[in-house]
Amino acid sequence: MYHEALPSVRASVLHVWRICLTLPPMKTLTVRLPDAVVMEIEQESRLRRVSKSDIVRERLLRKSRSAAGGSIRQTIADLIGSVEGLPPTLSRNKKKYLAENIRAKKTDRR
């Protein structure tokens, strides 16, 4: 009976070992979480049969990708209109304003 169960155990151990060999080296980070979040992670870990570290890693990567996936306009929305005294057509006429700015600086040096 012991020998009958052995191949499946050996296969699962080898499978886990192979997965561990393909993971890049990672650093350890200790994080303090609220009890509710820990219970949620533990429940998901049991349901999916993966480690809690895998769950946390996936959530962090998903969050960073969604944050990075926002449009540039959303990323800089708080900066739009925050600089006073610029012409409203600056984005459409950058060459004109850049040339004027360079000429003005050259005349200031003289």
Quick gist of this model?
This protein is mainly α. Helix content is 65%, strand content 0%. It has helices at 2-22, 35-48, 52-68, 72-75, 94-109.
Describe the 3D structure.
The chain has about 110 residues and is mostly helical. The protein has a domain at about 35-75. About 65% of the residues lie in helices and about 0% in strands. It is built from 5 helices and no strands. The protein has helices at about 1-20, 35-50, 50-70, 70-75, 95-110. The longest helix has 21 residues, at about 1-20. It is elongated, with a radius of gyration of 28 Å. The model has no long low-confidence stretch (mean pLDDT about 75).
Number of strands: 0
Strand content: under 5%
In quaternary terms, these chains amount to single chain
Tell the overall outline.
Answer: elongated
Helix content range: 55-70%
The computed structural class is mainly alpha
